[in-house]
Amino acid sequence: MKLPEIDIKEIATLEGAKAAIRALLNSLETFVEMCNRQVKEIEQLREEINRLKGQPKKPQFDSVKGKQKGGRSISVTELLKEKGFWSKSSKKGKIEIDREESMEEVQACSCGCSDFLTLRTKTKVVQGISLKRDTVLYRGKVKECKNCGKRYKSRMPKELQGRSFSLELSTFLSFWKYCCRVTQPLLLRTLTGAGIQISSGQVNNLIIENGKKLKDADHELRTTGIAKSKLLQSDASGAKRKDKKSGKIINQYIQVISNKLISIFTITKYYNAKTLNRLLTKKGREKPFVSDDGSPNGESLLVKIKQLCWVHEIRHYQKLFPFFNNHQELQKKILLQWQKFYHLAKHYAEAPPEKQQKQRKQIKNLFDTITSQATGYDLLDKQLKLTKKKKTRLLAFLDYPELPIHNNQCESDIRPFVIIRKISGGTKSHRGDKSLARHLSVIQTCQKQGLDVYQTLHGLITGTLPPAILTANIS
After folding, report:
1. How far apart are the first and last CA of the chain?
2. Distance (Å) of CA 242 to CA 15, 227, 255, 266
3. Which of 6, 309, 347, 459 could in theory staple to 407 by disulfide, Cβ–Cβ 3.0 to 4.6 A?
4. pLDDT tens digits, one per residue of 23-66
5. Strand locations in 196-272, DSSP E?
6. How many CB atoms lie within 10 A of CB 280?
7. Nearest to 331, CA basis, from 308, 312, 315
8. What does DSSP assign to residue 396?
9. pTM (predicted TM-score)
10. Is the distance from CB of 31 to CB of 1 less than 8 angstroms?
11. In whole angstroms, what is the distance from residue 286 CA to residue 190 CA?
12. Where is 72: in which H helix or E strand?
């Protein structure tokens, strides 16, 4: 790191001394930032070495402890109740009853009388589930006509021709793997424990086969779903595939294009603007688009209306770790200003049209005021200039109030995949990539629209439900 050149003659004046001190402090801040970055890289290298040695990971979080109240600790549930975020309510009125049973009644009184007067009736709901093996032996005959000698074979049901396992079992595997996040070894243990003779390869093949059958549903989401959507959001995360033949780890990306009603997942080799342009399709690129400020979402992305995520933008300021107290105060001051700005921007869409014009001017003026400051803290001033350059993409919500100012929807959508990646690892083939993406797309879309996930998934796999059921509620 090169230190700033300071003219000794200029230090003799008060202003020169102040400027020299500011330059020195900024140089030291840059040095401290470099040291912190190197410490982080060293920690990552240590974790990688431990991983290669097969050692367990170091915990990344502290134990959760309840807050103190009146000399005693209170649980998280009690804390949520106090804040009004959680309350317990009866669910008996919402439970669907499958069958009814009569309770055992007294036939005769202790006095010997058997004549009773009914005062009131009593009901109690007991929930349960019945999981049992359902192996069916189909018997058939080969018949021969006595007149002409022509032979006829008994026919299996059309949906079971060429199959050794029922369609209900296939749907069960997909539902538990991708919706309930159960690993394949546990699925195999569950089935074999119930007396079903099935191998790990057969479990995998059934799930892959279900993925093929969801091709039309996936195509429906990518065409009609995108065309009917009012806006789109996008995000990505890392994904890995372990090649079965070579054992080589292939780094990939899982990308999601979504909104409040649909989710479309794709595993791709690259994460760049060219790939995202292809996934959005021509109709998707005409929709208002929300994302972070990553390089794939830059100028090469051919969308007409783009809103950048304010959570990611403010996070750039939070990532600064100033060493000196005055720089820390400057950072805190700017963050408080952005907090006020974010509050105004968040409630902009909720205001009536007559008030939005006034708020629009207020938000623009506040943005210009914040980004035009010169604090003297070089790293902070540099970030303010970068934010100012992105003004058009950060304030697109003023012209299109329906646009969210954050990308939290996609962050939530991609989280289930991250959990699956942690507990099950990566995929093993290109077919596995497609199966995973299609299952996640259908399951999340069902959850967002309030559709019964199992019944819809089963209907799409068996062909008894049309793919259009996934886009019927989009308007």
Report:
1. 57
2. 62, 35, 19, 17
3. 309
4. 777 887 888 888 888 888 888 888 888 777 677 776 665 554 55
5. 232-242, 249-258, 263-268
6. 22
7. 315
8. G
9. 0.78
10. yes
11. 47
12. strand 72-73
> What residue ranges in 103-202 does DSSP mark as E strands?
142-144, 151-153
| Band of pLDDT at residue 68, cut at 50, 70 and 90 | low
Spell 186-216 as b/e; 16+ CB within 10 A means b: ebbeebeeeeeebeeebbbebbebbbebbee
| Exposure on the CB side of residue 12, measured as CA atoms within 13 A | 4
Task: Give backbone dihedrals phi and psi of 246, rounded to 5 degrees, phi first.
Answer: -90, -20
Scored b (16 or more CB within 10 A) or e, 287-302 reads bbbbbbbbebbeeebe
Identity at 380, one-letter amino acid code: L
In this predicted structure, the answer to whether residue 12 has a pLDDT above a threshold of 70 is: no
**Rounded to the nearest 5°, which phi and psi values hold at 253?**
-135, 140
- The answer to whether the beta carbons of residues 274 and 297 sit under 8 Å apart is no
Structure tokens at 456: 């819809």
| 3-state SS assignment for residue 143 | strand
As a whole number of angstroms, the distance between CA 395 and CA 345 comes to: 9
Determine the residue type at 16: G
CA distance 361 to 50: 54
Where are the strands (E) in 176-248, listed by range? Answer: 232-242
C-beta separation of 360 from 398 below 8 A: yes
Residue type present at position 413? D
Q: For the range 298-302, what are the long-range contacts, defined as Cβ-Cβ under 8 Å and sequence gap of 24 or more? A: 298/273, 300/272, 300/273, 300/274, 301/273, 301/276, 301/277, 302/273, 302/277
Buried b (16+ CB within 10 A) or exposed e, 309-346: bbeebbeebeebebeeeebeebbeebeebbeebbeebe
- Whether the Cβ atoms of residue 254 and residue 428 lie closer than 8 Å to each other: no
Task: Write out the two tokens for 299.
Answer: 């100028």
Judging by beta carbons within 10 Å of its beta carbon (0-12, 13-18, 19+), is residue 22 exposed, middle or buried? Answer: middle
